[in-house]
Amino acid sequence: MNNHFAKPAHAREDWTIDQGWASYTDQEHQTWDTLYQRLMKVLPDRAAPEFLNGLEALDLHRGGIPDFERMSDELESLTGWRVVAVPGLVPDDVFFEHLANRRFPAGNFIRKPDQLDYIQEPDVFHDVFGHVPMLTDPVFADYMVAYGEGGLRSLRHASLKNLAALYWYTVEFGLIQTEQGLRIYGAGIVSSPAESIFSLEAPSPNRIAFDLERLMRTDYRIDDFQQTYFVIDSYDQLFKSTVDTDFAPLYADLQGEFDLKPEDIAPTDTVIHKGTQTYANKGGRFAA
Ligand code: PHE
Ligand code: FE
Predict the structure, then answer these.
(1) What ligand 1 atom has the least distance to the C-alpha of 248?
(2) Are the C-beta atoms of residues 172 and 90 closer than 8 Å to each other?
(3) This prediction's pTM
(4) Ligand 1 centroid from CA 245, angstroms
């Protein structure tokens, strides 16, 4: 989410563009397949069943970058959502407006072969592989609509940072408790083989039970693995707790600031795992 850039000339008023599926090169399709195969080595017992079912339902294993039109027709029949192509990050109001109308904006470009492990700007692999499978789950799909509507409302408060933390710690980096143990549903995790293992198995990060207000008070890392992951019990819990809470008093209280650091544990937390933070303390991704 961002605001500080201009709309490219070829984009429409709502920032959408044609995906240009026919223009992808063999090498670009190959990049998708390589990333897909790497993730399939780690996700089967780690990703949430709803995510894995979504990959099946949308037939995303057929090879190559998916054609958004074909995929959207299948997705629309399940939950009413479609995927629209955009040139990259879009302004907050544009992003929220798309979500509120069941359109997920996805970058149409794919990372270069020398950037397979880390990219700054979300590409088609992160946006489609990471986000779209969960949109086949009816409750999660409704949560994303509510988030878009809540986002439009939040623009009247100076509190985008706090609302963004909610997106970050759920849609991007959320974990869920299942009968088989902790599973991943966050798009930022499932699109990274290394963080898929780290988030569930490393001793370093905290794993703390979801608490809406607590999470909206918490700063987060955008340049490395998270120092804390929040664990929901169900998508119903996520949907109900956010939809039934009026964020206005919280926005007024927080004033767009965070009072907890990424690694903090608060007195009210239900701690599932208290992290050692050794990964972050040694410098994380930037360690010598
Ligand atoms: N209940 C939130 C508000 O009062 C809206 C919202 C719902 C935000 C769901 C995010 C997710 O603004
Ligand atoms: Fe994302």
Answers:
(1) 4
(2) no
(3) 0.96
(4) 7
Q: How many Å apart are CA 209 and CA 232, to the nearest integer? A: 6
Nearest residue (CA) to ligand 1, atom 4:
246
Residue tagged 């190959």 (tokens): 30
Exposed (0-12), middle (13-18) or buried (19+): which is 147, by Cβ within 10 Å?
Answer: buried
Residue 174 three-state SS: coil
In the reported structure, the alpha carbon of residue 267 is separated from the centroid of ligand 2 by a whole-number distance in angstroms of 30
Quote the ligand 2 centre to 127 CA distance (angstroms): 6
Q: Please enumerate in sequence order all residues whose Cβ is within 8 A of that of 46, keeping only pairs 6 or more positions apart, or say none.
A: 183, 184, 196, 197, 200
Nearest CA-CA partner of 55 in 136, 125, 140, 151: 136
Which residues are near ligand 1 (CB < 6 Å)? Answer: 146-147, 150, 153, 242-243, 245-247
Domains identified in the chain and CATH numbers: 25-286 (1.10.800.10)
Residue with tokens 């933390």: 165
Q: Which two tokens stand for residue 44?
A: 């089967």
Q: Which two tokens stand for residue 145?
A: 């609509």
pLDDT in tens, the chain (288 residues): 556 678 998 999 999 999 999 999 999 999 999 999 999 999 999 999 999 999 999 999 899 999 999 999 999 999 999 999 999 999 999 999 999 999 999 999 999 999 998 888 899 999 999 999 999 999 999 999 999 999 999 998 878 999 999 999 999 999 999 999 999 999 999 999 999 999 999 999 999 999 999 999 999 999 999 999 999 999 999 999 999 999 999 999 999 899 999 999 999 999 999 999 999 999 999 887
